[in-house]
């Protein structure tokens, strides 16, 4: 049976003051897209990345449900996986690149057998989200925050659009490990010289960003391995390499407790 393609919503003039047309042009350059979405990327999207969902559920107590927003979706593998969960009603998949949403996301949805009827794609700048306050049950991102010009602003926007008690989940952020902290400046200089402009932050940096956004956050160590390798990775996580899931929950205000029904607090 042929699945309907996910809905695409056209948006104009959606970029905030933090984003530039030049950056968008770089992101949509054919050479960059072809270098990113390789056969290896699709293999990883099918075999490895989906492991994050059961990890978040079983190890972190995250119960995905309701209406979900993905920011900086890119190929949108995370939206594809979330759409398949029975308690998820709708997934709004956003990125500041219309080209990725129009051309790459549908390929990924097909490859991952996404529930496309639940998914709506639309361009958006995560620094300035065009959604009402208290609208989403979850906001999610995968390897996105470190690309932001202003991480605190992104977190404040995520907090604004979340319902009270809703959660922001960030995974696959490059967290600078402790044993390399002294060489960070030298390493970044080498990376920039070779054309890599990604920003690198420590775990303390990320915690401070969430604190400034007044979005209470728990950093959970991530290990997607099994057996003996699981325990080895757990011991060295944060030392020789760093993999964390950031799970932040929007506080339920006293006024909401009085005026609205009680919400089940995520574990």
State the gist of this model.
Helix content is 36%, strand content 18%. It has helices at residues 21-27, 30-36, 39-47, 52-58, 77-83, 98-111, 151-161, 184-193, 203-212, 228-236, 254-259; strands spanning 7-8, 66-70, 88-95, 119-123, 136-142, 162-171, 217-221, 244-249.
What's the count of strands?
Answer: 8
The residue ranges in which pLDDT falls below 50 over 5 or more consecutive positions are: 226-241, 259-267
Strand order of the largest sheet: 1-4-3-2-5-6-8-7
Helix-strand sequence:
EHHHHEHEHEEHEHHEHEH
Percent of residues in helices comes to 25-40%
Give the helix/strand class. Answer: alpha/beta
Number of contiguous helices: 11
Q: What's the N-to-C terminus distance?
A: 38 Å
Assign an overall shape. globular
> Which band does the percent of strand residues land in?
15-25%
Tell me about the biggest sheet? 8 strands, mixed
Mean pLDDT, nearest integer? 85
Radius of gyration: 18 Å
């Amino acid at each position: 049976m042929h699945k309907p393609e996910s809905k695409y919503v056209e948006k104009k003039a959606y970029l905030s003051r933090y984003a530039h047309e030049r950056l968008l042009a770089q992101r949509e350059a054919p050479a960059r897209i072809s270098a990113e979405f390789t056969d290896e990327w699709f293999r990883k999207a099918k075999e490895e990345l989906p492991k994050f969902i059961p990890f978040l559920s079983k190890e972190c107590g995250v119960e995905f449900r309701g209406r979900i927003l993905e920011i900086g979706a890119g190929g949108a593998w995370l939206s594809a996986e979330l759409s398949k969960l029975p308690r998820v009603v709708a997934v709004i998949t956003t990125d500041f690149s219309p080209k990725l949403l129009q051309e790459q996301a549908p390929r990924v949805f097909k490859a991952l057998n996404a529930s496309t009827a639940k998914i709506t794609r639309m361009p958006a700048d995560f620094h300035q989200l065009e959604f009402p306050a208290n609208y989403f049950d979850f906001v999610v991102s995968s390897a996105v925050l470190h690309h932001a010009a202003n991480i605190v602003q992104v977190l404040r926007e995520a907090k604004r659009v979340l319902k009270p008690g809703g959660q922001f989940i960030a995974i696959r952020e490059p967290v600078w490990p402790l044993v390399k902290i002294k060489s960070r400046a030298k390493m970044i200089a080498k990376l920039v010289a070779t054309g890599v402009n990604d920003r690198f932050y420590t775990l303390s940096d990320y915690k401070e960003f969430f604190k400034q956004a007044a979005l209470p956050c728990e950093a959970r160590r991530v290990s997607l391995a099994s057996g003996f390798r699981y325990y080895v990775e757990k011991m060295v996580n944060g030392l020789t390499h760093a993999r964390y899931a950031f799970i932040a929950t929007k506080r339920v205000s006293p006024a909401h407790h009085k005026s609205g029904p009680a919400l089940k607090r995520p574990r």
